[in-house]
Each structure stands twice: as structure tokens, then as C-alpha cells.
Fold each of these.
Amino acid sequence: MSAGARNSAPRAGFETPMPNPILLRRALILGAAAGLAAPAWLSPAIAQARTLRRTPGQTEGPFYPVDIPADNDADLLRNGQVRYAKGQAVWLEGTVLDLDGKPLTGATVEIWQCDVNGHYHHPGDGGKADPAFQGFGRTGVDRDGRYRFRTIRPVQYSSRTPHIHVKVKLDTAELLTTQLYVQGDPGNQRDFLWRRLNEADRAAITVPFGTAADGLKATFPIVVQA
Ligand SMILES: [Fe+2]
């Protein structure tokens, strides 16, 4: 065996180098044009390309409900029969997918957040939350993995930048607990939890809250390992 062959052979315990992405793409295009199946050496790269990046987790914080409230649907702007008209109304929507990009059928998404005055429905927050604001909601995903909530744009409280707490469950298993941030909010750079995220993780859980016909709209795509 020549020295070159020895050096290029995969060694146990070492990762095989990634193929050049330009050559990989060219080979795929040429193969597809010729009606050919991808060669065996490309298969691991294709599988890797289909693997989505997992949504990063964040701390649950101290204000997850002690008892799930009676009204826990996806409309946080109506608690029982009382409507909450404060703050900026938001449609928060997205999908829950697994690492292969498949909808996570059967998943439940929960969100909780403070009211416009910065108070949670939680004994640890002194029972000061506005009773008209539902504060917590949950919904199942549809067959395409989609979910949607009606809530408010989160606000700053104490030292925390605006955020919405998010949890994803599959039956009783908790697959993700994280926090969602508002892109461009000046408080993000001062927030101790947001600052410790790397660039990719910030991008994954910090989304635009853009204008919509009836308030704001934010889209939060979630990827979990099922
Ligand atoms: Fe919080």
C-alpha cells in the first residue's frame, strides 16, 4: 500500500470528511438528469442533508403553571368568557417536525407568558396577573405538524427581554422546553439567557413579529428529536 493510499483510508474513530458541497450538488444534478440512483458513496451525505437542526432548549423558568388552568386552549386572549384587549395581539404559528422533516403527529405544544404588566399566573408571582389574560395555552398539531396560538407580543419584565415559553410533548414525554424571542428587540442583547446562545441557536429561537391584517404574526418552526 502506498503512503497516499494509507493516508486517505478512513480510520476507525475518525469522522469521514464531508464531500465537497459543490461536487456533491453537481453529482446529484447529473445523476437526476440521467435518471440514475445516487451512488452508494453519496447516501450518507444525502441522509445528513435531510437531517434538520434540532431546536435548542432553554430553561423552563419558575412560572410553569402549578395547576393547568381550566381554560387552556390556544386562544390566550379569552380566559373563560372574559376577553383580553391589552397589548399587541399576535398569531403565533409554526410546525413541529422531527429531525427527518416529518410532522410529529400527536405532539402537543404549550406556551406560557406574562401579561402586559409583566405578571404570570403563578403563586411565585404574587397572584398579580390579569385574570382576563389566559397566560397559558396548549394545542395539538395537525397532520402537517402545524400549530397556532392567539396571544400577545411578549413584554419585558424585570431583567428579562420579551419571550414566550414553549414546551413540546408527545404523550407524557417532554421533547422540548425552550423560549421564543422577538427579533430586533433591544432587550435581547442585555438578556442573560439570550446572550449565552450561539449565533445558530439565537437564529433558531428568535423570530420576526411582523404585521398582519389583525395584529402581528410570528412563525416559529420547531424541530425535535422524537
Ligand atoms: Fe419567563
Amino acid sequence: MPITAAQENIRSLVEKLNFAEKVERSLELIERAYDQYSDRLVVADSLGKDSSVVWDLAQRVSPDIHGFIVTTRFKPEETKRFMREKVRMYPGKLEVYESTAEIPDELYETDPDRCCDILKVDPTRRAIREMNAACWVTGLRCTEGRTRTDFQEVEERDEGLIKLNPILTWYEREVWQYLALYDVPVNPHYKLGYRSLGCAPCTTISSGSDERAGRWTGTSKCGGECGIHTRPLTQD
Ligand code: SF4
């Protein structure tokens, strides 16, 4: 069965499946997609906890799977250090994409959508194009916050480009459970109390039910999206 045929009631899976079943399901989704797309399957790594899980799962499926990291000039120093270590740990397997475009000072304050478009969405488009991806794999989870409830494990938001969200059904607790049980390195910036990591000027430490509440606080984008999951990716 082609991977695109797998559509399920996600909400019921979130509650019905236990941790071990979710791990098995995620591995199977990646395995099936890798069987179908081979080296045209690429993993997107945001350097956050969810990406660390997905990258580890993908490497368990096949150490030949490649990925890309989109970073920006505004990532916290600790995140940049973690990125360099990870790239060193997987020689030749993780490509780093970063925009060098000139932007107005503090664009993140005056127009965060535009800033994210230039610094995050554009490099993601470039990664997908240059790596000739037919299927990109993300760490998106439907319990992360209000903007993430309406996704499927397998999607085709851009024609000809499959997006695989293999840990869509996982709770935040299960992400940390996996990282601890499988001894997966994770961005040490979480030690400060962050629950969702992004660029330094746009990320605060938050608590409460919305995991992404600390993103873009004080703007209309609060708890929202940078655009890589919502904007077209196969056009400039
Ligand atoms: S998260 Fe903030 S600094 Fe980073 S690209 Fe988006 S608006 Fe710019």
C-alpha cells in the first residue's frame, strides 16, 4: 500500500496507543516511506526535542537516511553549539541551510511573519529543492498547541512533495520518555526551562497546557507557526 493511503483518526490514536505502540508505529511509517522514496526521503531537523526523536528513529530505520537543518542568525548560542556537535556526529549526513539575506534590524519585532519567511521558510524551500526531496519528515505533533491539531501523519500539502509526520500522535511526555530511554542527545538549552525552542528574540520560557505558548509572545503570532508547516514549499 503506498504511504499516501495511510489516513487515520489521529485524535483517537493519541489516546489509544501506548508509548511502545507509538514508537513501533513511527518506525513503520518511516520504514514504509523510505521503501517508497529511498534517498529522496529527507529528515528536517529543527534542533528541538521532537526532531531529535525523529532523527534517531530515522537512523534506526536506515543509517543511510539524510537530513537537513535550517538555522538562523538568531538561534541561541547553545543551539548553535548543539547543531555543530550533531553535524560532526553524523559526517556528511546533515546539511545546514541558513539565509544570509540582508533584513531590516529587528524585523522580528516589526514583521515576524516576514522575518520567518526569509530566515526559515526560504532556506527550507532551498533544502527541499537542492536535496531533491520527494518526502520530507518532520517532528510535528498534534498535542503541541492550537496550531498543530489539524495535521495528518502523511500529507501532500505541496503537489509532488509528501510530508511525513511520524510522531504526530506523541505526547510531550513520550518525547522525553524516548530521549531518556534510548539515550538520545538533546539540545541542552532545555535545561533552562524552555518547552519549545526557537530563535532567541522570539522565544520565552512558558508553562501551562500550550507547549508553544512561549513562541512569539506579545505578538499576533503568539504560540503560532514560523510558516514551514503552513506555507507552500515547492515555489519561491
Ligand atoms: S523566530 Fe523570530 S528571529 Fe527567528 S526567523 Fe522567526 S521572527 Fe525571525
